[in-house]
C-alpha cells in the first residue's frame, strides 16, 4: 500500500508560510521606516500646538488644565492611532500629540541687532534687520489635517464627510511689547468628489465623480468651516479653461447653492502670469472690505482680548501649493501692515514693503513655508517661489521650477504610491494577523 503523497505537502508549506510572513513583515518595516522619515513633525511638552491662539485663549481654564492630548484638536494630531494603547492605560504623562506642518520664526529687532530665523528643522540664519518700534517676534505655524491625508495625485478633492485633501490651517503670529496678534488662513482641495489618476502623462486628466451626495459634501465642508472659523470667503485660483476650467465651473455651480459663503473666482495664471505678483491687488480689491471686517485676533499683556478674527479666507488652486502660497503670502502681508499700524509700529502711511530688509525676511519666511508644505504633499519644493521671495520670476527661479516640475512627475508616477501607503498605514495600523 502506497503512502499518501499528500502528507509530504505539509513540510514545504511551513517555510512557504514563514517566508510569506517575513515578506509581509519586511514590507511593513519598510513602511515604518518611511513613516519615520516623514517631514515636518513637531511636538511640545508645554503647549498645545494643534490649537490656534484665539481658540486657546477662549477655552475655559478647566479645559487647558487637562493633559495635552485631551486639549488637542483631533484634526491635526498626526499620531492619534499610535497613542491609543497609551490612552487606554491612562499614561497621560507619556502621551504627546504630534503635529505635521511647519513652524518658522523671525525675531525682529531695532536696527543693528541680530535676528534669528528658525526654518523647519532648526536651521538657523543670523542677519540684521531694521524695524520701527520695539523687538518683535514673527511666527508662521501651519497645521496639516489628517482626515484626508495623502500625496498629491493620490489624494484629491473631498470624501463624503466633506474633508478635503491637503487641508492646512496657517497661523501668522506677531508678538510685540506684550501684545500678541494671530491671523488665520486655510487652504484645501476643491471640495467636490474628483480624482486625477496617475497614468505616466505629465498632467493626468481630471475626472469629476458624479455622485448624488455632491451638494451635501460641499455643504458639510463649509458648515464645518463656519462652525470653526466663522464666515468664509472661498477664493478659487484655478484656470478657467481645459480640465481645470471644467472643475472650477462645477465648483462654482455648487457654491451658488450656498448663499452664506462668498465664492470668488480668480484665474491666477491669466491675471498674474508668471511674474506679476502685484496683480494680486485685483483680487484684494474684490475682497478687501470683507477681508478687513474678518479682522484678526489681538490680546494684550494682561490677557485681555482686544480684537477677534470673525471669519476666514479659504484659498485653493489644483494642488493648493504654488498659486495658493503666493496668494496667501500677499494677504498675510496686508494683515501684517494692518496689525503694525494698529500697534503703533507703523504710521497709517507706512507698510512692511517700505522697509526692504524686513520685507525680504517676511517674504523668505513665506517662501520657506511654501517649500515645506509642498515637500509634504508633492515631494518637491514649491513652484513660483520667486514670486513670494522677490515679487517676480528670476532666471534661476525659472530653472528651479523646471527641475521641481520634473521631480514632481517622477515622484507622482514612481514613488508616491509607497508614500500614500505610509499615510494610510500610520493612520490605521494593522498587523500581519489582520492581513489574513
TrEMBL record:
GO BP, one annotated term: phosphatidylinositol dephosphorylation
Residues of the SAC domain: 32-379
Alphabetized Pfam families for the sequence: Syja_N
Database matches in InterPro entries: SAC_dom
One GO CC term, this protein: endoplasmic reticulum
GO molecular function: phosphatidylinositol-4-phosphate phosphatase activity
Protein name, per record: SAC domain-containing protein
Source species of the chain: Gossypium stocksii
Amino acid at each position: 500500500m502506497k503512502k499518501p503523497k499528500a502528507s509530504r505537502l505539509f513540510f514545504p508549506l511551513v517555510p512557504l508560510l514563514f517566508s510569506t510572513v517575513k515578506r509581509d513583515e519586511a514590507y511593513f518595516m519598510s513602511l515604518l521606516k518611511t513613516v519615520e522619515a516623514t517631514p515636518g513633525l513637531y511636538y511640545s511638552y508645554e503647549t498645545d500646538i494643534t490649537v490656534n491662539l484665539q481658540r486657546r485663549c477662549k477655552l475655559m481654564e478647566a479645559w487647558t488644565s487637562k493633559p495635552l492630548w485631551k486639549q488637542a484638536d483631533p484634526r491635526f494630531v498626526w499620531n492619534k492611532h499610535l497613542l491609543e494603547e497609551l490612552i487606554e492605560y491612562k499614561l497621560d504623562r507619556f502621551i504627546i500629540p504630534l503635529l505635521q506642518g511647519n513652524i518658522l520664526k523671525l525675531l525682529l529687532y531695532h536696527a543693528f541687532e541680530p535676528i534669528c530665523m528658525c526654518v523647519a528643522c532648526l536651521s538657523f540664519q543670523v542677519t540684521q534687520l531694521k524695524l520701527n518700534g520695539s523687538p518683535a517676534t514673527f511666527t508662521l505655524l501651519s497645521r496639516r489635517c489628517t482626515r484626508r491625508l495623502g500625496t498629491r495625485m493620490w489624494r484629491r478633492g473631498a470624501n463624503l464627510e466633506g474633508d478635503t485633501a491637503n487641508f492646512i490651517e496657517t497661523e501668522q503670529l506677531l508678538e510685540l511689547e506684550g501684545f500678541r496678534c494671530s491671523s488665520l488662513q486655510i487652504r484645501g482641495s476643491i471640495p467636490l468628489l474628483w480624482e486625477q489618476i496617475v497614468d505616466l502623462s505629465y498632467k493626468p486628466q481630471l475626472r469629476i465623480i458624479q455622485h448624488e451626495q455632491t451638494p451635501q459634501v460641499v455643504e458639510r465642508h463649509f458648515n464645518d468651516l463656519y462652525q470653526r472659523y466663522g464666515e468664509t470667503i472661498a477664493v478659487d485660483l484655478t484656470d478657467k479653461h481645459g480640465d481645470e476650467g471644467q472643475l472650477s465651473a462645477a465648483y462654482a455651480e455648487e457654491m451658488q447653492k450656498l448663499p452664506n459663503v462668498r465664492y470668488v473666482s480668480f484665474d491666477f495664471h491669466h491675471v498674474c502670469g508668471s511674474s506679476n505678483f502685484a496683480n494680486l491687488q485685483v483680487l484684494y480689491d474684490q475682497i478687501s472690505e470683507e477681508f478687513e471686517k474678518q479682522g484678526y485676533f489681538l490680546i494684550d499683556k494682561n490677557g485681555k482680548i482686544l480684537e477677534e478674527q470673525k471669519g476666514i479666507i479659504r484659498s485653493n488652486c489644483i494642488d493648493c501649493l504654488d498659486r495658493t502660497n503666493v496668494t496667501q503670502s500677499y494677504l498675510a502681508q496686508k494683515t501684517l501692515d494692518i496689525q503694525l499700524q494698529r500697534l503703533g509700529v507703523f504710521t497709517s502711511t507706512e507698510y512692511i514693503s517700505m522697509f526692504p530688509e524686513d520685507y525680504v525676511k517676511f517674504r523668505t519666511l513665506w517662501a520657506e513655508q511654501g517649500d515645506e508644505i509642498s515637500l509634504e504633499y508633492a515631494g518637491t519644493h514649491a513652484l513660483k517661489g520667486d514670486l513670494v521671495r522677490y515679487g517676480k520670476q528670476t532666471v534661476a527661479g525659472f530653472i528651479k521650477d523646471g527641475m521641481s516640475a520634473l521631480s514632481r512627475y517622477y515622484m507622482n508616477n514612481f514613488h508616491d504610491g509607497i508614500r500614500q501607503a505610509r499615510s494610510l498605514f500610520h493612520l490605521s495600523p494593522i498587523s500581519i494577523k489582520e492581513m489574513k
